[in-house]
Design goal:
The protein has 466 residues and is an alpha+beta fold. It is built from 14 helices and 14 strands. It has two domains: 119 residues, Ubiquitin-like (UB roll) (Roll); 324 residues, Glutamine synthetase/guanido kinase, catalytic domain (Creatine Kinase, Chain A, domain 2). The strands form two sheets. Strands 7, 8, 9, 10, 11, 12, 13 and 14 form an eight-stranded mixed β-sheet that branches. Strands 1, 2, 3, 4, 5 and 6 form a six-stranded mixed β-sheet that branches. The longest helix is centred in the middle third of the chain and has 20 residues. It comes from Ancylobacter rudongensis. Keywords: ATP-binding, Ligase, Magnesium, Nucleotide-binding. Its cofactor is Mg(2+).
Length: 466
């Protein structure tokens, strides 16, 4: 049967994405859009770019930004460029090309405003190897060359907190509609979610307007800690959705004078926040899950994917847990994993196999924290599974007991994680040597910045005692 051609009306009515500049013009005209936010996600997942009048965008949709946007640390600093890039080249302009499939409105903007995600290219047309979206595309292409297609479903945890304008003060749960803050653990509580009904109604409205597909919303373990699950799908599409969702919930919260934070460990005595990634691999032609055979049993590829995660996740830990704060989440006395053991429906292990039908057999990576860049964390996780399959690795036996009592198998801190990435030739081959070199230099610079800060703990215990 011939594929039905999409009409101009279909393109205009679609809340998210068009196929061309001409369709974009009609789409924005139908909505009275006057401005457009043109962004490219950087190494931290922060959107860098420009806001321009629609007339300027339509006259030439590409924009220029310097290569340095992919060298910037979370604090706005830059690593030494020695052995990384020429100091002239780093400030030379790249060409940012819009991906029209990401076109959506900015529903919280005062004036009719659109947004669109860009991809970065060198002036000779080569994709920029440091761009996180490109790193993920490269991994997806590796799967395609094997006749495979990855399917992912992220789960993102976050906290709602009172506005905090002085970083010296700890974060606190916000006041809900009852007029009281949450003080106890309220896992899966409907009533605790209802405390912020108005905020979440805005979040759903904003998400629907942008074409973001939210599966479920639940209350997690921590005080005012929530989790959003997204529908499964293409890795690049889902990474785009996580990138946009983080901004969406922050904006919805600000409308109610509340902060939404994706810090891995924002409150000392509360659980950390994770970004769990459910992963399955399907045949590129048939769409059948290659983790299950015709009898519904697990395949060698399924076990090799697990084994690849076991072997290589420690080497990409600086992506899965990208900041000093990230490692405060990974402690023995919490639900966050400390090793790469795996088990069937075992949430204490780093790798969980959820109960499912054979067609939905998948591997849940529970190691990443919610502060991670969604493009990089999905790319890194899939890269580990890919290496396991192409190398024919075999996993350990599935664990039925509590994994918390076992040894740490993951890096305990950022510098240890950076070193693990630097020493993995396999990861450099899959993610790109120039990306690995730049990314680890940025992480080392961020650690150096952190070390310039004297913490309250140091003043409390060292000031008069040493």
């Amino acid at each position: 049967m011939a594929k039905k051609k999409r009409s101009d009306k279909d393109a205009v009515d679609n809340p998210r994405g068009v196929a061309s500049l001409a369709e974009a013009k009609a789409w924005m005209g139908a909505r009275g859009i006057t401005e457009i936010e043109c962004a490219v996600p950087d190494l931290a997942g922060v959107g860098r770019g420009k806001i321009m009048p629609v007339s300027k965008f339509l006259s030439g949709p590409t924009m220029n930004l310097p290569l340095s946007v992919f060298f910037q640390t979370i604090s706005g600093d830059y690593p030494p460029y020695d052995n990384l890039v020429d100091s002239v080249v780093v400030d030379s302009d790249l060409v940012m090309e819009p991906d029209f499939s990401t076109l959506a409105i900015v529903p919280w903007a005062q004036d009719p405003t659109a947004q669109i995600i860009h991809d970065a290219y060198h002036r000779d047309g080569r994709p920029v190897e440091l761009a996180p979206r490109q790193v993920l595309k490269n991994v997806v292409d590796l799967y395609a060359k094997k006749g495979w297609k990855a399917v992912v479903a992220p789960e993102i945890e976050f906290y709602l907190v009172e506005p905090n304008i002085d970083a010296d003060y700890p974060l606190k749960p916000p006041i809900g509609r009852s007029g009281r803050p949450e003080i106890g653990r309220q896992s899966y509580s409907i009533q605790a979610v209802n405390e912020f009904d108005a905020l979440f109604e805005d979040m759903y409205d904003y998400s629907e307007a942008q074409g973001l597909e939210i599966d479920t919303l639940i209350h997690e373990d921590g005080a005012a800690q929530m989790e959003i699950n997204l529908l499964h799908g293409d890795p690049i599409v889902l990474a785009d959705q996580v990138y946009l969702f983080k901004r969406t919930i922050r904006e919805a919260a600000l409308q109610h004078k509340i902060y939404a934070t994706f810090m891995a460990k924002p409150i000392a005595d509360e659980p950390g926040s994770a970004m769990h990634i459910h992963q399955s691999i399907v045949d590129g032609e048939t769409g059948k899950n290659i983790f299950s055979d015709s009898d519904g049993d697990p395949t060698p590829e399924f076990f090799s994917f697990i084994a690849g995660q076991q072997r290589y996740l420690p080497a990409v830990m600086s992506i899965l847990a990208p900041y000093v704060n990230s490692y405060r989440r990974l402690t023995r006395d919490s639900m966050a994993p400390i090793n790469v053991q795996w088990g069937y429906d075992n949430r204490t292990a780093g790798l969980r196999i959820p109960p499912s039908s054979p067609a939905a057999r998948r591997v849940e990576n529970r190691v990443p924290s919610s502060d991670a860049n969604p493009y990089l964390v999905i790319a890194a996780s899939l890269a580990c599974g890919y290496l396991g399959m192409v190398e024919g690795l075999r996993p350990t036996e599935p664990l039925e007991a509590d994994a918390k009592g076992l040894d740490f198998e993951l890096p305990r801190g950022l510098l240890e994680a950076v070193a693990a990435m630097q020493h993995s030739e396999e990861i450099a081959t899959v993610l790109g040597p120039s990306f690995v070199k730049t990314y680890t230099a940025v992480k080392q610079t961020e650690f150096d910045t952190f070390m310039r800060v004297i913490s309250p703990w140091e003043r409390e215990y060292l000031l008069l005692n040493v």
